[in-house]
Amino acid sequence: MSVETNKDKVNVPGEIEQSIVFESGNEMAAFAAYQINYHVMGYYPISPSTEVAQFLDSMKAKGEHDIVLIPADGEHGSAGICYGASTGGGRVFNATSANGFLYMLEQLPVQSGTRFPMVLNLVNRSVSGPLNIHGDHSDLYFALNTGWPILMAREPQMVYDMNLMAIKLAEDPEVRLPVIVSFDGYFTSHQKRRVQVFKNKEDVHQFIGEPPTGFLHALDRENPVTIGPYMNEPDYINNCFQQSEAMYKAEKVYERIAKEYGKLTGRDYPVLDLYRMDDAEVAVFMLNSSAEVCKDVADHLRSRGIKAGVISPNMIRPFPQKQLAEALKNVKAVTVGDRADSYGAHGGNMALELRAALQVYGNVSTKVINRIYGLGGKDFYADDAENFFQLAIDAADTGYVEKSFDYFGHRPGKAEYAPKRVLNPMKKEDLNSGLIKVARDESTGKLKVRIPPLRSLTKKPKRIASGHGACPGCGIFSGLELFFKGIEGDIVTLFHTGCAMVVTTGYPYSAHKATYIHNLFQNGSATLSGLVEMFHERKRRGEFEQLGLSDDFTFVMVTGDGGMDIGMGPAIGTALRNHKMIILEYDNEGYMNTGSQLSYSTPMGHMTSTSSVGNFQKGKPFHHKDTAQIMAATHISYVFTGTEAFDRDLLQKAAKAQWYAQNEGLVYGKILITCPLNWKSKDELGQTIVEAAVNSCFFPLYEVERGVTTITYNPEEKKKRIDVSDWLTLMGKTKHLLKEESKEVLQMFNDEVERRWNQLKAKHESPYL
Description:
Layout: E1 8-10, E2 18-23, H1 25-36, E3 40-43, H2 50-61, E4 68-71, H3 75-86, E5 92-96, H4 98-103, H5 108-114, E6 119-124, H6 138-142, E7 150-152, H7 156-171, E8 179-184, E9 193-198, H8 201-208, H9 235-265, E10 272-275, E11 282-285, H10 290-303, E12 308-313, E13 315-317, H11 321-327, E14 333-338, H12 349-360, E15 367-372, H13 382-398, E16 405-407, H14 428-431, E17 437-440, E18 447-450, H15 476-485, E19 491-496, H16 499-502, E20 516-519, H17 524-540, H18 543-547, E21 554-560, H19 563-566, H20 568-577, E22 582-587, E23 613-614, E24 617-618, H21 627-632, E25 638-642, H22 647-663, E26 667-672, H23 676-679, H24 686-695, E27 701-705, E28 708-713, H25 724-728, H26 743-765
Parallel strand pairs: 3-4, 3-5, 5-6, 6-8, 7-8, 11-12, 11-14, 14-15, 15-16, 19-20, 19-21, 21-22, 22-26, 25-26
Antiparallel strand pairs: 1-2, 2-9, 7-13, 10-12, 17-18, 23-24, 25-27, 27-28
Helix pairs in contact: 1-2, 1-7, 7-9, 10-13, 11-12, 15-22, 17-20
């Protein structure tokens, strides 16, 4: 987002000069961060919060801010980056959603418990599983016990305003806690609205003040400190008590900040947003965007003589217990909408806390009805809000609540709607061609593979059915299917989250003909290793024979879209334990399923949505990760690289991979596949591009078998070596590298490709390297 986009001077109430923009919640979070000019942002892409980092990176490329943007290897890492940066005494920012938030959850109480301020934008989304990327509050409710004050933003204007107030709240000496700003994924994060902003950054800085200098931090050599010590009782309980006191003080501090902000801007945000509650007899309690729908319905009910009102907290940590009890003292019934369930607790978190507030203040007359609604992004319309009000009206009229807790918007299942099998299981005899021969060479210890002509393998059924939702020209499935042609017999596959997973499993359909499992980016290899060991133990006990089940599977984990960033640690652990399975990485050089953010496999200088190109940045600023070499360093039996452009080479390696996975242990393979959408290339050039990547020596084809490296295709020997720039011309994402202003970056990339190629040739020539 350009800081000058859609801006006009406008006269608005308040003491400072303001402008108008027409932007989304994610854009306003980024815009507020830009105006604050944080020192550091650690981040990791996850929908729907990813755009926040993208917008900041775009600004960074143009030189519009000084924030150091650090792409982490996962959300746990991004939280660690932010915590580490905050101990240095500067200002820190982050944004995340859903399972990403849960992955960093372990880090959050560390930061609040050691009292280091920062601001985290939590763009609310459903928590898996099953996987759903749309908006509800299941991630938000996990935040309630982290020790972070939580501000709520119902629409983009509030996202901007709350972000400015959040840093001031976090740094207040009475609080000194990290703060969350929460807003609804896709409802608020992506919908554009008219927003008033501070016209001058100087006014922002005057409002938030300078970073505090009185806090202890890690960068003062005259005052060395121990941060996060081991602490026994009673010191630990005292520390927690002090944190608790700070949390409750945050409410009063927030109220003071909100009044100051209201005076400056004309926008007032009390702890509770109370709409027509002065004389209300029935009410609805809602968080964030749904509250706005309820307000329209309250107006409609008022026109019919029903005294209806809406309560929506602007702050839920600390929970505004006293204010809520006061607001509801004359209300006969209130319906609380929870956009997440607290499973087994007989109510959602907000309903349970609201009931507790009423009890504390002696209110036993107000009836509380609770409904779980809007899960997985299910829309909430005016008719639904009217239904919520009707529940309260009925309870007020009868003095009785028939069902105090229930789900709203679900429907009973019907047997006739049960998913039907569309494809019959593949026949075992069809999966075993008998044409692929693998035998060990006793003199070298290596495997010899005989592969028939490819046309003779076309009768083998595809493991993944047609009809999936991949983009035109996507190289994932042609690459996977070629690899699977070299695998004989039954397989069980586990897919990491990514394009290949998302486009093949849209419930109630599945494109997978064999058993398929999904788990999250970071833990797929550990999950599949557990299944592998279960298989071998049940086989050892003779259970499959007793049940008449097959006892012959090849286990394959498919990963890509940056999965070997966030999933690298568990993959290495799986390799060290040497489970009998294959990890197959499809390398599309980015996080394509979330919109083409940089991953560690993105080559240097390549453009993504978080490695923008501008006067101050020429694409990704550091080199790509060589996952095949990392996995080879774990000393597993077999590692390989391949592409569909060299079909027989990949087929031979697939056959070897299966033999080693069934007989010795873990295999790791990496296949380069094309992504026309995000590489900005023509659909029909997929094989041409990956072939050029091989011939430029950027993606060499080789295998590491029992620790011995063999280059399986040498473009220099074949007289087919091309310059890296000849490969780059085929993709729109790299054309900037061919311009004079990118000469230095291109040279650095060229040099690294050459260094790695020469190193690989040295390993090929010596069995000891």
